[in-house]
């Protein structure tokens, strides 16, 4: 509805990747598998950006960066370093 073409394109692409994987696996995908597909696409975009930096294609870099941010918004929040450190310390104390 917002007519954000970049968001629509990248989401349609990721949804198509998920449907392809579902067909290949002949079963419903788990949440973890869907997350892995999104992470794979983010990694692909990062690799694309590193190549585009070499050829100095600023416009494409900006588009891929925007697509990465869109995809990251669909991933679960990562644990901060402090949270991870506290979790490890709690586990050490427990053991």
Account of the 3D structure:
The protein is mostly helical. Helices cover 79% and strands 0% of the residues. It contains four helices and no strands. The protein has helices spanning 5-25, 31-55, 58-72, 81-94. α1 (5-25) packs across α3 (58-72) and α2 runs antiparallel to α3 (58-72).
| Rounded radius of gyration (Å) | 18 Å
Give the overall shape: extended
N- and C-termini, Cα separation: 52 Å
Helix content: over 70%
Q: Indicate the structural class.
A: mainly alpha
Poorly predicted runs of 5 or more residues: none
Number of beta-strand segments? 0
Q: Please tell me the overall pLDDT.
A: 92
Largest sheet: none
Strand content: under 5%
Supply the number of helical segments.
Answer: 4
Topology, please?
Blueprint: H1 5-25, H2 31-55, H3 58-72, H4 81-94
Helix pairs in contact: 1-3, 2-3
Give the gist of this structure.
The protein has helices at residues 5-25, 31-55, 58-72, 81-94. The protein is mainly alpha-helical and 95 residues long.
Give short descriptive properties of this protein.
single chain, 95 residues, mainly alpha
């Amino acid at each position: 509805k917002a007519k954000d073409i970049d968001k629509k394109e990248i989401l349609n692409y990721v949804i198509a990747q998920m449907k392809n994987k579902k067909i290949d696996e002949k079963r419903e995908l788990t949440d973890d598998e869907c997350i892995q597909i999104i992470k794979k696409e983010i990694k692909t975009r990062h690799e694309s950006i590193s190549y585009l930096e070499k050829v100095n294609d600023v416009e494409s870099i900006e588009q891929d960066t925007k697509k990465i941010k869109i995809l990251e918004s669909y991933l679960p929040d990562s644990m901060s370093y402090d949270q991870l450190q506290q979790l490890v310390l709690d586990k050490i104390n427990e053991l």
